[in-house]
Amino acid sequence: MPRAATTSDPFNAIAEPRRRDILEFLGAREHTVAEVTEALGIAQPSASKHLRVLWDVGLVEVRREGRQAFYRTNAEQIRVVYDWSRRFERYWQRQLLRVKERAEGNTKSRLDPPTTQER
User: Fold this and answer.
1) What is the pLDDT of residues 41-53, one digit of tens each?
2) Most exposed among 3, 21, 27, 53, judged by the fewest C-beta atoms under 10 Å?
3) pLDDT band, residue 55 (cuts 50/70/90)
4) How far is CA 32 from each of CA 19, 22, 65, rounded to the nearest angstrom?
């Protein structure tokens, strides 16, 4: 089955690691393409292409000021991804609880002196 075009779906768009990096960078405040390229160490044509894909699916917005374009994340569209991923939160919490219990159990057995029954 052919994969959907990255421009049609936010999930496909964020499947690309560089686009996730760009979204994370834009999370703090808006930036120009030049700032994105400098901060992430990618070529301008590549940054522009990734920003275009993110813009096409609505994950970023653009504000023009003269010849400059300022990109920022679109929180409403990112919320769609967040809401979907929250479905798995219970799983993550259970897994983290298991890790914590095992770590505390192992730590306790190594650090606590043996009881009289254990000797």
Assistant:
1) 999 999 999 999 9
2) 3
3) very high
4) 15, 11, 11
Nearest to 20 by CA among 29, 10, 7, 31: 10
**Exposure string over 74-100, b if 16+ CB within 10 A, otherwise e:** beebbeeeeeeeeeeeeeeeeeeeeee
Where is pLDDT greater, at 15 or 106? 15
List helix spans (H) across the chain: 10-13, 17-26, 33-40, 44-56, 75-85, 89-111
Pair 8, 78: CB distance under 8 Å: no
Per-residue model confidence as pLDDT tens digits over 62-72: 999 999 999 99
Q: Which domains does the chain have, with CATH numbers?
A: 1-110 (1.10.10.10)
- Do the beta carbons of residue 12 and residue 3 sit within 8 Å? yes
